[in-house]
């Protein structure tokens, strides 16, 4: 009996081998590998799976490793770019925070008058910035000339800050020649009139048709409108027949108020 089974087992094994080969060929045919451009790579990959220690399998593993390394490097580069972008955004904010903390520490040591002046300066600068952004045409460079009014001073700074009509009127004044008769007609009366008021400094200069006045006084209230009251008194005099073409006022702190008037003949 054992001898009679041997041919049967051999036949069964041979049949299984034939069926396996036929099944494998059918599977390859269904995959249509002959029409796949990367057939060699696919076959190599299959061999690498069967024989992991082969040269092809090592090359495939190295390629997969390199591909993963490149992907991770791209992710790292993208993350670093995002981090740099965030740092660029935070840098000016951190600088503002440091500035604010420094100002806050200084403000604690300030008197009430100094705190008021700091607030006024900040508001003034913000106003100037907004005006410059929305009305660039209103800021006019000041002309230099042979005049007391062309000298650098707090008044010149005030004219620059006001811009617009004040700067244009000031430039017209600087460019005018000096008319002795016109100057004599108004400079003396203006000085005598203003000497009746409690002012710290008075600068008056007249040209051909324009007069410019720089005034300084001290009052406790930073919003005191004493200059307007003075000008109303000036308009009520018998000899005054000029027109205020432009004017500017600013509080300088510690009670100091400065004023610029540009007066002209006619309208």
UniProtKB/TrEMBL annotation:
Keywords: Coiled coil
Coiled coil: 55-82
Keyword Coiled coil attached: yes
Protein name: Uncharacterized protein
Species of origin: Saccharospirillum salsuginis
């Amino acid at each position: 009996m054992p001898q009679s089974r041997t041919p049967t087992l051999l036949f069964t094994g041979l049949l299984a081998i034939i069926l396996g080969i036929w099944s494998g060929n059918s599977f390859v045919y269904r995959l249509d590998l002959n029409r796949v451009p990367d057939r060699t790579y696919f076959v190599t990959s299959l061999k690498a799976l069967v024989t992991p220690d082969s040269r092809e399998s090592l090359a495939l593993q190295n390629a997969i490793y390199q591909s993963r390394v490149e992907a991770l490097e791209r992710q790292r580069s993208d993350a670093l770019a995002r981090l740099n972008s965030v740092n660029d955004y935070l840098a000016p904010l951190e600088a503002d925070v440091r500035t604010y903390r420094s100002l806050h520490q200084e403000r604690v040591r300030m008197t009430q008058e100094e705190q008021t002046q700091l607030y006024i300066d900040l508001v003034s600068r913000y106003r100037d910035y907004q005006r410059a952004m929305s009305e660039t045409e209103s800021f006019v460079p000041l002309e230099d000339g042979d005049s007391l009014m062309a000298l650098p001073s707090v008044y010149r700074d005030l004219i620059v800050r006001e811009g617009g009509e004040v700067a244009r009127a000031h430039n017209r004044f600087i460019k005018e020649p000096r008319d002795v008769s016109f100057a004599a007609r108004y400079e003396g009366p203006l000085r005598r009139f203003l000497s009746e008021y409690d002012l710290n400094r008075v600068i008056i200069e007249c040209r051909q048709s324009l007069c410019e006045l720089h005034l300084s006084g001290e009052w406790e209230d930073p919003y005191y409108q004493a200059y307007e009251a003075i000008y109303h008194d000036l308009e009520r005099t018998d000899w005054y027949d000029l027109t205020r073409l432009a004017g500017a006022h600013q509080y300088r702190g510690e009670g100091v108020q400065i004023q610029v008037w540009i007066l002209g003949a006619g309208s």
